Amino acid sequence: MAYQKVNADQRAPGHSQYLDNDDLQATALDLEWDMEKELEEPGFDQFQLNSAENQNLENSETADLNLDPIQPATSPKGRFQRLQEESDYVTHYTRSAPKSNPRNFCRLLKIFCTAIILFISGILIGYYSHKNCPSNATSSGTLDLHLYQEILKTIQGEDIKKSFRNLVQLYKSEDDMDISKKIKTQWTSLGLEDVQLVNYSVLLNLPGLSPSSVTLSSSGQCFHPNGQPCSEEARKWSSQDLLYSYAAYSANGILEAEVIDVSYGNADDLKRIKKMKNVTNQIALLKLGKLPLLYKLSLLEKTGFGGVLLYIDPCDLPKTANLSYNTFMVSLNPGGDPSTPGYPSIDGSFRQHRSNLTSLLVQPISASLVAKLISLPKDRTTNGACSPLELPNNEERIVNMKIQTVTKFETVTNVVGYLKGVTFPDRYVIVGSHHHTAHSYNRQEWASSTAVITAFIRALMLRVKRGWRPDRTIVFCSWGGTAFGNIGSYEWGEDFRKVLQRNVVAYISLHSPVRGNSSLHSVASPSLQQLVAEKNKFNCPRRDQCPKTNISSEQIQDDADYFINHLGVPTVRFTYEDIKTLEGPSFLSEALFPKHATKIEEMDPFFNLHETITKLSGEVILQIANEPVLPFNALDIALEVQNSLKGDQTTTPQLLALASRLRESAELFQSDEMRPANDPKERDPMRVRMLNDLLQDMEKSFLVQHAPPGFYRNILYHLDGKTSQFSILLEAWEHCKSLASNETLQEALSEVLNSINAAQVYFKAGLDVFESVLVGKN
C-alpha cells in the first residue's frame, strides 16, 4: 500500500523537537498506535459521527471543547497517511454539533481557567525552547547545499592549470616511486591526514631492447609499427614511442603467415571468414572497438589464429584527432598482478610466472602501416566521406611479424590518504585518480587526473581547517600501474578486500576528466543516476538551453573496474568527450597513445572544463559522504532490470515475472523505508544505519560468477551507451547463432535469473528485518 508523510507532531510555533523527553514521546506513540488499532477494528469503517443521536454520552464533555475534525491515525511505523483506500473505508470524519446541555457554571469556569493556563504555559515553553534550541525553519538539506557551494567555490580553473603544468614537469622522472612520493608530499602539505604509500611487487611485461617489426614477404620491406621503414635513423627518432608500441602480456616470437582481414572480429565476422579461408595459424588484421579487446582475442584464439595486427580505423576517430601515424599500447591483462591472480602481491605470496596471457602474437600498428600493407592511396575520402580500411578478399598478403618483450618484477606504488568521518568513520567514499607508470604514455592524461583530485583536496581541507568534517570517511587514492591492467587498484582491493566489502559505499572516478571538449558524458550506477542527473544541472543553469543529459551505466576502462566487478560498489565518473567519440565505436579508449597525442591544453586552454568536472564530482562526493541517508535509489535498479529485458529475444516469462516482483519489492522498500528516513522528524539512528547498510550493498546481487573475457561481471553495466540489453545475454545469443548448441545461452539466462532473484530476496529480507524491529519495539 502506498503512503505519504504527515506531520504527527502538532507543535506550537517555535516548539523544538529537542524539548520532548523520552516519556512524552513514548506516550504519544502509544496513543497514536491505540487510535490506529481502533480505526482498524471490524465494523469501524462504517462508523460516522454525522448525527447527534449516534453520539456516545461519554463524548459530550470532550465535544464541548469544539475539537477539530479527527485526522487519520498515525503509527510508529513511520507516520504515513493512506493514499489508496478501500472502497468501504471512510476517509473523513466530522463531529456533529454538541447537544445543548445545561452545565454547572463552576465546572465551565474551571475548564476555561485550565485551558487559559495551558495556553499561556505553551507560549512560554515555546518561546524559551525557540530561544535556547536551534530552529528547524531552515532545512538541513538547504544548509548542506550552502556548505557544499562554499567548499566548491574555491576551486578555480587557473589553479588546476598551474598544478597540471607542475605535474607535467614532474614527468621528467621516469620512476613511479619518485612521482608517488611527491604526490604524497603535496597532499600532506594541504592538510590531508594519514597519507600512505602502499607498495606491491608485481610482474610487468615491458618492451624489449628493439622495437617490433612487420615485414612484407613479397617485397622484403620492413616497417616499424608506426609505418616508418626499419632503419637506424627511424629507430633513433622517437625511440620510446616505437618501443612502447606493443601489447603488454602478448606472446613473443616470430610468425610468417597470411594476413586475413577480420574487421572488428565479432562472431559474425569470424563465421563468414571461416567459410572462405583456412585461418589456422594465420594473422588477423583486427580493428579496435565495438567489443572488448580481450573478448575478440579469445574468439580469434579459439578459431585458430596465430597472430593479430591491431589498429584503429581513422574513420572511427573524430576529425580533429589525426592519429594515422601514431602508435599505441594496449594491455592484455584483465586486472591485477598476473603472478598472483585473485590474491594480493604481498611478501610470501605464491608467484606464478606468466610471461604472456595469450597464445597469440599481438602487435598494435598505425593506420598508415595498414594502408601500406593493403596498398591503398593516401587520400581515401569519397565525396567528403571517410572510407574504412579494408583488405580486398581476392588479394593475398604474406607478412612476417616479430615481437620481443621482457617480463620482470617491479614495484607499483599507490598513494592513499584519509579524511576521517565524524559520524560514520567506518564507511568509506573512495575517490580515485591515477599517476604515471608506463614510459611516455598518457603523460598529460595522468597529470590532468592528478591535478583534479588535488584541487578538490585543497578546497576540502580549507573547510576542514575551520572545524568541519564529513560524516563518512573520504579515501583519496592515486593508483599506480594503471596502464598495465589497473594493477595498483586491483592489488589494493585484493589486499583490503574484507574491509572494503563491508565499508565502501561508493567510488568516484577522476580517471580521465577531459578527453574532448564538446560533450559532458556521465557514467553512473543505476542507483546513482538520479543524483548525477540533479548535479548535471550545475553545469547548465538555464534549463531551456540544456542539452540532453548524457548519463549511462556502461563499461569504462579505468581503475573503478575492481570496485564495480568484484565489490559491487556504486560508481560515478564525469568526463568531457568529443561528440564523435561518443557516437563512434566503443572501447577505443583501450588504446593508450603516446604523450604528444593527447593535448590537454589545446582542448581546454583555460581549464574551465577541468573546473566543471572537479565541482560536479566534488558535489557528488560531498553529498554521499555527508547525507544521513545515502542518496541511492533502489527503485531505479529495478527499473533498469526491466528495461534491460525489454525487446530482448532471449527473455523468458520467468525472467519477466521475477523482474516484476523485484520492482514491487523495490517500490515497497522505497515507500516504507526510504521516504520516512529522509524526513529529519522521522529519523531513528538505528533504522538509518540499517537502511544505509542495505543501500550500499544493493548492487552486489548483480555480480555474476562467469562472464566472457573483457565483459563486466556486474550485469547492471552495458557494453556501451547505445545498447540496453544485458551484455552477457547479447553475447550468449551471438554465440548461440554460430553454434548448434544453446548451452551457453541457457547458462547466461540462469546467471541473470539468479541475480534478479537474489536482489528480490535481498529487498524482501530488508523489509522483513525492519518489520521485525518495529514489532520488537511495540
Describe this structure as you would to a colleague.
Keywords: Signal-anchor, Transmembrane. Belongs to the peptidase M28 family. M28B subfamily. This is N-acetylated alpha-linked acidic dipeptidase like 2. The protein has 778 residues and is of the alpha/beta class. It has 3 domains: 166-205 and 408-625, Aminopeptidase (3-Layer(aba) Sandwich); 210-376 and 388-403, Glucose Oxidase, domain 1, CATH 3.50.30; 634-775, Transferrin receptor-like, dimerisation domain (Transcription Elongation Factor S-II, Chain A, Up-down Bundle), CATH 1.20.930.40. The protein is built from 24 helices and 21 strands. α12 (443-464) crosses α19 (608-626), α21 packs parallel to α24 (743-777) and α22 (685-696) packs antiparallel against α24. It is globular and about 125 Å long.
Total domain modules: 3
Largest sheet: 8 strands, mixed
On the 0 to 100 scale, the average pLDDT is 80
CATH topology of the largest domain, what is it called?
Aminopeptidase
CATH architecture descriptor name of the largest domain = 3-Layer(aba) Sandwich
Beta-strand content: 15-25%
Distance between the termini: 21 Å
Structural class: alpha/beta
What integer value in Å does the Rg equal? 32 Å
Q: So what's the oligomer here?
A: single chain
CATH level-4 homologous superfamily of the largest domain: Zn peptidases
CATH class of the largest domain: Alpha Beta
Helicity, as a percent range: 25-40%
Strands ordered across the widest β-sheet: 3-15-17-16-18-21-19-20
Using DSSP, what is the number of strands? 21
Quick one: overall form?
globular
Number of helices: 24
- Give the uncertain stretches in residue-range form: 1-102, 129-140
